[in-house]
Amino acid sequence: DIVRELGCTCVTISHRPALVAFHDIVLALDGEGGYNIHTGQRGLESGDGTCFTNAKKATKVRQSEAKYVEDAFLSSARKSCMGTRTISLEKHLGRCLSHSPDTEVTSTSTVIKRMQSVQSIESVREWHKSLQVALSPGYSKGFLSRVRAVMNKATNGWAPDMKHLSMLALIIVTRTALSDRIANLNGTTVEYVLQQDVKAFARLIGVSVLQSLASAITAPSLKHMTDLLALKWRDRLTVAASKLYLQRTAYYSTSQLADISDVDQRITRDIERLCNDLASLVPSLIKPIVDIAWFSWRMKRLTGRKGMFLLWSYMTFGFGTLKLLTPNFGKLASRQHQLEGEYRFTHSRLRSHAESVAFFGGGDREGRTITGRFELLLQHLKHIMKCRWGYGIADDFLTKNLPHNVQWIVSLIYAAEHTGDRGLTAVQGELARDMRYLASVVSQSFNAFGDLLSLYKRIDELKGGVNRVSEMFETLEIIRAMEDERDEMLKNSVGKPDEIVFEDAQITTPNGKLLAEKMSFVQHAGVNLLVTGPNGSGKSAIFRVLGGLWPLGGGYIRRPRDDAGLLLSDMFYVPQKPYNSIGTFREQLVYPMTVSNACHKLTGGTSNVDQEALDARLLELLDVVRLRYLLDREGGWDAVTEWEERLSLGEQQRIGMAPPFFLKPPF
User: Fold this and answer.
1) What residues pair up with 661 in beta bridges, in sequence order?
2) Are 591 and 652 in contact (CB under 8 A)?
3) How distant, in Å, are the alpha carbons of 140, 267, 399, 476, 645 from that of 136?
4) I want to staple 183 with a disulfide (CB 3.0 to 4.6 A). Which of 42, 140, 440, 478 is the partner?
5) Span between the terminal Cα atoms of the chain, in Å
6) How far is CA 573 from CA 10, 628, 658, in A?
7) Residues 183, 186, 188, CA angle at the centre, nearest 5°?
8) Which residues are paired to 11 by β-bridges?
9) DSSP codes of every residue in 509-563
10) Biggest alpha carbon distance in the chain?
């Protein structure tokens, strides 16, 4: 009665036969693609006189289940009608308002011209297949192309970060020059000690203190600039991902249709980790190249081509050997991220359904599930540790221990080619200085070489994070294209403001399973519709297709709009599961509007009202849903708490009915 007074039309999903008393029309699905439309109790009382019968023989199990539900509704309607007015129901048996067409007969009637851009079941299946292919483990667009796509979003074309990157490169070059200068001072120190030059040694100590101060500044500065770069990239990637994820209903399609259950981890943890790794990769890539080029030039001046040839020959040998021995760290990292997300999801899921699990006594079962996920993660981490242990042995041997032998050979080449009287103190000091400096140069070169070799491992580990983040963006872009097509269809399917028209609508699941075939009926304003049928017959699917959450498998649907041209604004959907937003008690009653929008809506959009007038209207709504006591219990309109935990399920359901009573939508 309240809904009727507000001028709203209800379309309800339910198994409860008693609800037939409040609806004019009943849409019954059989779960095998068929349907029937018959008159409900209000229609009988109004004198329509049409009652339900099954239009097709129940030859399948699903249709038998549907027949059981339909008989219950028929029994409820018959009892109510016999109690209110004398009417012969039997003479109306076999007369349906509408039923699904015979599958062997082609319907030739066309009430409304079909749209040219009609989706088909095959197109829905192709769309779902494209999502599954993008998420399959064997699918890859290529690592470089994915890195390029991610970096284009992170850097916004590189231009905004050129100044930052230039500063980073300048710090790296300065650090290399200081390292060379310190290496030279180490050799000069030995020379001054042999010559017993106290004044020169004292000056050298002062210069060394200044250089140490400069080195102490460059190292933290390099880390600071790298962290700033990572933060910039994380900001841009998070904004880009959030824009796609929160646009329209992509947040629903991503988890429900694309089967990505850990989008929250990808947007928060994976993007953060990827940006940190990519930013640290920049100095790790520039510094070894600068060091190798700088110290190779220095070595050539001391040892000539022989030393250069020996150094580069060993670097080539070490790089090739280490590459052959390197495991697939990218695949291992991707699997680790996936297992961590699954493990975190099981804990989050238990927290969300803690009360239900507690009532069922399912703590042991959930504990085994969580423990099983953790054991999988633990086994994988142990496998990664073994791979890193083996790789670490090869890396230390080739980049840290074996190079000492090369250093000795290079020193021998330099000493053999050095000319001068070895008995003179000055020559001994010069030789000691150059040998000490040469040792530092070779050591710095091999350290840079080791850093360069470790890049292969780091880039390989980076593949896992790049693939997960890139996969998320690719899926979101596919969903955006789907929703763009859906919105275009909605614009072309706007009908009258007082009716919803289904014309040969093919109701399917996203993977193409047919639920209702060629459904055709008109839902007029003021005529309440009850949708019933066995579980999985497509009742909720009708609402998801009507709301644009699922693609339409064929035919078309015409929906109302308001005078402002805002699609679906004349329709309000109340989900089966109640939802409470983050915010005040006042905001719960006007969701999804803000308080300022609600004040504007209260006057019909002509002007704004003060918050007191809004609160007075909301107080009336609390009386309607019988929750006035919550205002005092929760501490007033501005109270903020965890509403899902604070309110009972029944209170949440009643609060969920307040927004449509406030908005008064036609449907």
Assistant:
1) none
2) no
3) 9, 20, 38, 15, 37
4) 440
5) 15
6) 10, 24, 12
7) 110
8) 529
9) -TT--EEEEEEEEEEETT--EEEE-STTSSHHHHHHHHTTSS---SSEEEB-B-T
10) 133
* Separation of alpha carbons 77 and 82, rounded Å: 9
pLDDT value at residue 627: 92
- Residues β-bridged to residue 37: 27, 98
Contact by Cβ (8 Å): 434, 299: no
Strands across the sheet containing 499-508: 514-524, 499-508, 556-558
Tokens of 2: 């309240």
pLDDT by 10-residue block (mean), the chain, 667 residues:
78 80 84 79 48 39 51 52 37 45 39 36 56 51 81 82 87 85 74 73 80 85 91 93 87 79 85 91 86 80 77 79 81 85 87 82 89 93 92 82 77 71 66 74 77 76 84 88 74 74 87 84 88 86 84 82 50 86 90 85 68 89 91 92 88 88 85
Residue found by looking up tokens 């498998």 in the block: 553
Residue 62 has which token pair? 């699903």
> Can you list the alpha helix ranges (DSSP code H) found in 353-362?
354-360
What is the helix (H) or strand (E) element at residue 37, kind and residue range?
Answer: strand 35-39
Count of CB atoms situated within 10 Å of the CB of 411: 19
Count of positions (residues) in the chain: 667
